[in-house]
Amino acid sequence: MRIAYSPSTRLYAHEPLRRALLGFAGVLMASLLGFGTYPALGQSADVFGDEPDFMRLRMEQYANAQDSLDLVDFYHGMGEEDWMDHRGWLEASEKMTGAAVAADEADSLALVDFYHAAGGEDWKDPTGWLKDPVMDWHGVTLNEEGRVVRLQLIDNNLTGTISASLGELGNLNEIWLSYNSLTGFIPSELGNLAQLEILNISDNDLTGSIPASLGRLAKLESLNLATNRLTGPIPPELGNLSELENLDLNFNNLTGSIPRWLERLTKLKYLNFSGNRLTGPIPPELGNLAKLERLNLGHNALTGTIPAWLGQLSGLRYIMLGGNALTGSIPPSIGNLANLAYLALYLNPLDPYDFPAWIMNLDKLRTLNLSGTRLYGTIPSELFDLQKLEMLWLAHNDLEGALPDNIANAKTLSHLGIHFNYLHVLPDLSGLRKLYHVSVGLNRLTFEDFEDRELPAGVRYYEYAPQRRVPTRVARSAFHATFSVEVGGTANKYQWYREGSVNDEAVPGATSDTFVASLSDPPLCYYCKITNAKVPDLTLYSECVSVDDADMQATPDVEASTYTLSLQEGGEPGSYMLALRTDPGGAVTVTPSSSNKESAMVSGALAFDPSNWQAPQTVTVTPVDDANLEDDTVTITHAVAGYPGVPVGPVVTVTVADATIIISAEEKGQETPTAFALEQNYPNPFNPSTTISFTLNKAQRATLSVYDLLGQKVQTLVDGVRPAARYRIPFDASELASGTYLYVLRTEEEIAVRTMLLVK
Hints:
Blueprint: H1 16-22, H2 25-32, H3 65-77, H4 98-117, E1 140-142, E2 148-152, E3 174-176, E4 198-200, E5 222-224, E6 231-232, E7 246-248, E8 253-254, E9 270-272, E10 279-280, E11 294-296, E12 301-302, E13 318-320, E14 342-344, E15 367-369, E16 376-377, E17 391-393, E18 398-402, E19 415-417, E20 422-425, E21 437-439, E22 461-463, E23 473-476, E24 480-484, E25 492-499, E26 514-518, E27 525-532, E28 540-541, E29 562-566, E30 574-580, E31 588-592, E32 600-603, E33 606-608, E34 617-623, E35 633-640, E36 661-667, E37 677-678, E38 689-696, E39 700-707, E40 713-722, E41 725-732, E42 739-747, E43 751-758
Parallel strand pairs: 2-3, 3-4, 4-5, 5-7, 6-8, 7-9, 9-11, 10-12, 11-13, 13-14, 14-15, 15-17, 16-18, 17-19, 18-20, 19-21, 21-22
Antiparallel strand pairs: 1-2, 23-24, 24-26, 25-27, 27-28, 29-35, 30-34, 30-36, 31-33, 31-35, 32-34, 37-38, 38-41, 39-40, 39-42, 42-43
């Protein structure tokens, strides 16, 4: 309450009479010497004793309005007109009596109650509380009438709860209690503060729902309840806050949809609902908030599309819709927002899209975050003509190509996040003097992007490792496979590994960017590990590939020009189908001939198109009368044209076991089969070779594979498109152990399995 003992107005809550009386020595002396008495002073006799034990007294007694009334009576009863020093006594006396005195008392009592409820004993700064005049209490502001108008205790280690008695501070204009550890509910009594303009109790640990009573705060301009644990829907009563300019409820556990009644808050400038559990689409009614400058709806579960009406809110400077489930495209109308400084749409499953050209119109843009939005294509160089761009986040997309060289124009750039893309060139960043954060990992950058590169001195975060695997190329010929990598850098070291071997065994001697493997080796997957002495924190790995991943433009081996086929069909004329598994590079012509012209005549020519080099072609083998081809051979000699550096045959002759040729037979004159069938192999049991026959009733892709009883594939005999026919396929098991094996025929529509027995 106010005690007029000095020119300053002061409100006391601790020993007001003792401090007031000790301030006037003359009056005290008169009282002690007996110069008149006044009975009312007997009610305050304890103020002349020693300092009272504060903790044993009731707080509500310390700012007693009756004390002030007693002093007024004392003043008049002691001949106030003749006092030697009566400075301050009864100054503005009309404010010391009646309702004004009672209201002042209520303010101090409410603050004392708040102090205890909020753990005042442990506050970071409790200066003056419960000891000095209220006007000297840390965080308390009074008006000219001595009423509390502001309570500001930000980051002061407040614990406990918010006392409901705060609702009794009838003149309170502002409450600032953010960045503390307050718990419990928000008291509904706060709705009684008719003069309240600012309520900020963000960054605490408050629970429960938002009180509907807050909708009675007709003068409220700013409501900030962010970063608590509030639950439930947003109460519709908040739609009555017609003066509200700032509504911040972010990072709570609020549910339901974004209210349509928000359109009634026509003065709203800042709307922040980020980090809740709001669902549904963004209501179109928000498009009526003509004064809106900041829209933050990120990190909810919002669905639907990004509204095109955003482009009509000309005052928007901040759009944050990241971390939702928004789909569709980004409306180009956003490019009309001339004042836009912050655009964050990250982590939304938008339709795949190329870099929007209209972004380059936003010349006030400071932050652009399109990370995780299915952005593809290249980064346009025009982006770095935005002279105010400070933060650029394009991570977790499908961007490729180079980061443009003119990034050097972005003199204000402080944060660059382009990780998790497919970019393969990083330009020099040394000229970006304001650069602080750089994240370029998991692209296709190599050592040349980091060797001998300098960064600005201000960079404090630099993430460039790891990078994605670099491509491994494999060129296959008939006998060899050549694996290679192409990695930039001047101090690179290479080591090839076999995946699937014990502990991914290093290939001995394979320490260059190229490594040659024999096709007689097991069909393992190979990869290369690349390090660089100048960039020790980065290790690159190449993609693991096998011979089956061979580059279709490989150059064939010279010795693959001649093949010898053992014919197992005897006595009857037939047409034999060949699929040369040679690598293309130019037209291949096969000219058949017979090594035993008395037994058979071979005619026809095979032309292989490099674009379809595995397509089967037919050569006719015609036995002479009474000839038996079972023990004879036919040599197929071909000339190679169009392969650089490879001479035209003839070359060496190899056996069918060494050549990669698939042989099948179609009996001449046989009608098109009507049924799919897999026959028993013959002979069976066998050692070491046998023939597997099957029938296809229409042209289709067929695979014939042999498995052991553990389900491991032993060999694939047929794999490709075959016309309708009956086929006889030889199988050589010389390298296998005795036992039972399965052979499986698969087509696009059917599957058949049989067993065979190898006995050695």
